[in-house]
């Protein structure tokens, strides 16, 4: 098959392109600027230039393919840039949905676990876990806009779209060019950070997620069914310890206390207001990193053959790639 991939310069998109190639499929990638040659090295992917709002380019690319993987997104963990996030993540998805309906092409939409319910250590969330007030109203531009992107796809399904939605956890692994989540590895191994965030993540391997994305295009029911692609549910404190043990740097001492986080949020937001530039430490990002994003991926394991490899392999390979 020939697959049109948005976000192909990103962590997940690039891994999807590489696995499509390895499986003998053709691919076409949307790029906004001429990419560095290393990003597409070894791939026979055809590049088309434009963004999610380049109507003619999108139209032609979708018409010319059998399926679309939409993984382009703006990932801003903060409360500013909401309009920009909505434009890219919701309206950009609408442009892709409309083209897929027009040419009757299958869509695999990449969501995020951050936009669905949050579970607990004893009961990790699955696709049916109801939202609660603490998970429904997180004022983070990324979360709000990604939720809106899922609604846009589901609305498309009601209009005849054939679609599957996947929600990856915290992905680590190779081909993280920017880097995306690999930035955490860079940050914790660059300078000593004694206090880790309070919450936790479902850490998964981007290669396993990419394989499930391709399985989703090939085998899913395409009726808007949603799949969590999580991994190992661990605290950031444990994760940082694992990373620093491997990089040979000093690990965290303790998770941050609630009072310190509250103060850091206020100071971060104040700095944002006076500099007009939001730093990584802000109230929305702190709220996100204080939650336990722990997930159960059984549905994807049973229906898409999703496999979660050992955390050791993921961390070793991600660190080797980044460092
Ligand atoms: C802001 C912007 C970005 N992009 C592209 C650029 C990259 O190719 C891609 C984002 O890649 P990044 O490495 O930042 O993110 P990932 O870690 O791969 O994110 C993935 O997983 C998480 C869970 C997701 O929400 C994303 O939808 C999904 O792509 O989107 C565009 O094409 N247009 C734009 O306007």
Automatic annotation (TrEMBL):
<keyword id="KW-0456">Lyase</keyword>
<feature type="domain" description="NAD-dependent epimerase/dehydratase">
    <location>
        <begin position="3"/>
        <end position="230"/>
    </location>
</feature>
<dbReference type="GO" id="GO:0004029">
    <property type="term" value="F:aldehyde dehydrogenase (NAD+) activity"/>
</dbReference>
<protein>
    <submittedName>
        <fullName>dTDP-glucose 4,6-dehydratase</fullName>
        <ecNumber>4.2.1.46</ecNumber>
    </submittedName>
</protein>
<dbReference type="Pfam" id="PF01370">
    <property type="entry name" value="Epimerase"/>
</dbReference>
<dbReference type="GO" id="GO:0008460">
    <property type="term" value="F:dTDP-glucose 4,6-dehydratase activity"/>
</dbReference>
<dbReference type="InterPro" id="IPR036291">
    <property type="entry name" value="NAD(P)-bd_dom_sf"/>
</dbReference>
<dbReference type="InterPro" id="IPR051783">
    <property type="entry name" value="NAD(P)-dependent_oxidoreduct"/>
</dbReference>
<dbReference type="GO" id="GO:0005737">
    <property type="term" value="C:cytoplasm"/>
</dbReference>
<dbReference type="InterPro" id="IPR001509">
    <property type="entry name" value="Epimerase_deHydtase"/>
</dbReference>
């Amino acid at each position: 098959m020939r697959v049109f991939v948005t976000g192909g310069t990103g962590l997940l998109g690039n891994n999807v392109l590489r696995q499509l190639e390895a499986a003998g499929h053709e691919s076409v990638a949307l790029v906004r600027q001429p990419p560095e040659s290393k990003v597409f090295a070894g791939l026979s992917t055809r590049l088309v230039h434009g963004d999610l709002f380049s109507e003619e380019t999108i139209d032609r690319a979708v018409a010319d393919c059998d399926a679309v993987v939409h993984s382009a997104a703006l990932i801003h963990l903060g409360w500013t840039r909401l309009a920009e996030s909505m434009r890219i993540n919701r309206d950009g998805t609408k442009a892709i949905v409309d083209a897929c309906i027009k040419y009757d092409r299958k869509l695999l939409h990449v969501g995020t676990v951050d936009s669905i319910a949050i579970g607990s250590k004893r009961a990790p969330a699955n696709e049916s876990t109801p939202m609660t007030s603490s998970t429904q109203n997180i004022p983070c531009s990324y979360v709000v806009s990604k939720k809106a992107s899922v609604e846009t796809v589901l609305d498309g399904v009601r209009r005849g779209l054939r679609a599957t939605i996947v929600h990856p956890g915290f992905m680590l692994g190779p081909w993280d060019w920017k880097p995306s989540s690999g930035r955490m590895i860079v940050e914790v191994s660059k300078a000593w950070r004694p206090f880790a965030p309070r919450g936790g993540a479902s850490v998964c391997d981007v290669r396993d997620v990419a394989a499930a994305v391709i399985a989703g295009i090939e085998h899913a029911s395409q009726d808007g069914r949603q799949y969590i692609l999580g991994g190992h549910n661990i605290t950031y404190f444990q994760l940082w310890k694992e990373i620093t043990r491997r990089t040979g740097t000093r690990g965290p001492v303790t998770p941050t206390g609630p009072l310190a986080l509250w103060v850091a949020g206020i100071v971060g937001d104040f700095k944002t207001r006076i500099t007009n530039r939001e730093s990584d430490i802000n109230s929305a990002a702190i709220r996100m990193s204080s939650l336990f994003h722990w997930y159960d991926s059984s549905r994807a394991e049973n229906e898409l053959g999703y496999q979660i490899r050992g955390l050791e392999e993921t961390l070793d390979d991600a660190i080797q790639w980044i460092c």
